[in-house]
């Protein structure tokens, strides 16, 4: 169920880029007026930014993926080299959980929002195979650790700079750190969607930030961390911690270990797994279930609880068409099964309700409630 969960590569954390290796001991910084930002869109099945590159082309539907670390465009309309483009003579080949992309590699000037770098590796796709619910799609920008892009470019054995690495290397930002506000599908989240490079916005934070060490489970370069427990109302539906969890903005679902997924169905009379076509299966509650009587779900980590109400974990009917769901009166949720891949995968349906901070240099991730 956890599709687009990142590249299937077995790599090692020791490949951190030299662009920020010297900054590993610095603490995360709050944003200043100099920190560049980029508008972030929530388009139901994907989070997107606009990328300008090539022959002054703007690609408006580039998926923001915390589960990978390569930048490529050209899925819908072809990349055209411009005056700043330099053909490397190499090709790229990237595989995701569902689909892949291949093409030519360039070094080019790339602008995302108010952030610009002049020497960025970028893939110009000439062949893609990706889920139809992502259409329209122009490409991917991966904002995980650069180790996950090693061996994806022919002729280069090690990792190459991510867009964030290049921002640090070219002096645009001081630290390899970024933060994200995901606009909620229900339109009730505070503020517009935004990625902030080089810091975080303390004005958006209520209470303490829950800082967690990024773990190296399964030798993947994901934003993985340990969670203490998961509760559905008063019932603990997970094993005792530490639990293995990670964020994946390239995946929309609230994916749970199969045992937790089945536990929710046992706790709500009439709940069952419902097939929604290529995207897999989600939990659906019966039509006669009252939202007022359904419990909230809480994720415990770093001494804090992050809680979603039924109104937040139930899929809005406006999303049904994207996933081929016929409105039969049942309450379809964002809960999917991660099998035994992880105890929890926090996709965009979770990320839209909490502020998230990604500290590459210190290998930490932070979450906070919105102010």
TrEMBL record:
Q: Where are the transmembrane segments?
A: none
The name this protein carries in UniProt is Peptidase A1 domain-containing protein
Q: Which residues form a coiled coil?
A: none
What InterPro entries does the record tag this protein with?
A: Aspartic_peptidase_A1 (IPR001461), Aspartic_peptidase_AS (IPR001969), Pepsin-like_dom (IPR034164), PEPTIDASE_A1 (IPR033121), Peptidase_aspartic_dom_sf (IPR021109)
SUPFAM superfamilies, alphabetized: Acid proteases
Gene3D superfamilies documented for this protein: Acid Proteases
Task: List the lineage, top down.
Answer: Eukaryota, Fungi, Dikarya, Basidiomycota, Agaricomycotina
Keyword hit for Hydrolase: yes
Source taxon at top rank: Eukaryota
Which residue positions does the secretion signal occupy? Answer: 1-21
Family, as annotated: Belongs to the peptidase A1 family.
Please provide the Gene Ontology terms (biological process) for this protein: proteolysis
Q: Where is the Peptidase A1 domain?
A: 47-368
């Amino acid at each position: 169920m956890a599709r687009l969960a990142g590249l299937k590569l077995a790599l090692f954390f020791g490949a951190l880029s030299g662009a920020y290796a010297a900054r590993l001991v610095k603490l995360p910084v709050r944003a200043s007026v100099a920190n560049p930002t980029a508008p972030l869109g929530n388009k139901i099945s994907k989070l997107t930014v606009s990328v300008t590159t090539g022959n002054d082309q703007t690609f408006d539907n580039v998926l923001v993926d915390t589960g990978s670390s390569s930048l490529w465009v050209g899925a819908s309309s072809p990349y055209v080299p411009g005056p700043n483009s330099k053909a490397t003579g190499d090709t790229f080949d990237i595989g995701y959980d569902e689909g892949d992309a291949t093409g030519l590699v360039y070094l080019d000037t790339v602008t995302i929002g108010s952030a610009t770098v002049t020497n960025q590796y970028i893939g110009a796709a000439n062949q893609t195979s990706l889920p139809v619910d992502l259409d329209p799609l122009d490409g991917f920008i991966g904002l995980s650790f650069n180790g996950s892009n090693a061996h994806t470019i022919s002729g280069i054995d090690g990792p190459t700079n991510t867009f964030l690495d290049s921002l640090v290397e070219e002096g645009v930002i001081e630290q390899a750190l970024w933060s994200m506000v995901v606009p909620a599908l229900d339109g009730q989240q505070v503020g517009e969607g935004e990625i902030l490079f080089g810091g975080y916005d303390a004005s958006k934070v209520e209470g303490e930030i829950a800082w967690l060490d990024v773990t190296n489970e399964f030798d993947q370069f994901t934003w993985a961390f340990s969670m203490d427990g998961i509760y559905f109302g008063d019932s603990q539906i997970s094993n005792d911690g530490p639990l293995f969890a990670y964020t994946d903005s390239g995946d929309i679902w609230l994916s749970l270990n199969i045992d937790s997924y089945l536990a929710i169905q046992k706790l709500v009379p009439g709940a069952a797994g419902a097939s929604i076509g290529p995207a897999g299966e989600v939990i659906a509650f019966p039509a006669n279930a009252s939202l007022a009587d359904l419990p909230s779900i809480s994720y415990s980590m770093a001494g804090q609880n992050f809680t979603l109400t039924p109104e937040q974990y139930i899929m809005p009917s406006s999303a049904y068409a994207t996933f081929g769901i016929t409105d039969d009166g049942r309450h379809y949720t964002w809960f999917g099964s991660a099998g035994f891949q992880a105890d929890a995968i926090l996709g965009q349906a979770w990320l839209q309700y909490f502020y998230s901070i990604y500290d590459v240099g210190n290998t930490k991730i932070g979450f906070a409630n919105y102010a």
